[in-house]
Design goal:
Blueprint (H helix, E strand, L loop, with lengths): L2 H25 L6 H27 L6 H28 L8 H21 L2
Helix pairs in contact: 1-2, 1-3, 2-3, 3-4
Pfam family, one: DUF423
Family: Belongs to the UPF0382 family.
InterPro entries: DUF423 (IPR006696)
């Protein structure tokens, strides 16, 4: 994967993250319990951090780093956003507790993505 699709996905993820944050702050504040709103905000935080991580990964591509590893790192962060933040958004809105089993899968994808970035840097010439 090249940097272009990662940048596009990151920009779309950032736009969605900002929208989710605004929706939580303005639209859900009166609807959700404090606990559920906190879950929503955790989803937004990790969503935005990892979308920015995707931009950082794209910035490193083409610079003596293993682009294959970086492509996987960017993709894993994007899928991690869907699994981690997405499951927290649905949990906050629906109260469906079994989704808590999906959230850690997204966290593992985040961790592997960061480790792939470290490995790419380690292998850089």
């Amino acid at each position: 994967m090249t940097e272009r699709p990662i940048i596009i996905l990151a920009a779309l993820a950032l736009a969605a993250g900002v929208a989710a944050g605004a929706f939580g702050a303005h639209g859900l504040k009166r609807i959700l319990t404090t606990d559920m709103l906190q879950i929503w905000q955790t989803g937004v935080l990790y969503h935005l951090i990892h979308a920015l991580g995707m931009l950082a990964i794209a910035a490193f591509m083409g610079r003596s780093f293993s682009d294959g590893l970086l492509g996987w790192a960017g993709l894993l962060m994007f899928v991690g956003i869907i699994f981690f933040s997405g499951s927290l958004y649905v949990l906050a809105l629906s109260g469906t507790k079994w989704l808590g089993a999906i959230t850690p899968l997204g966290g593992v994808m985040f961790i592997i993505g960061w480790l792939l970035l470290a490995l790419a840097a380690w292998r850089a010439h």
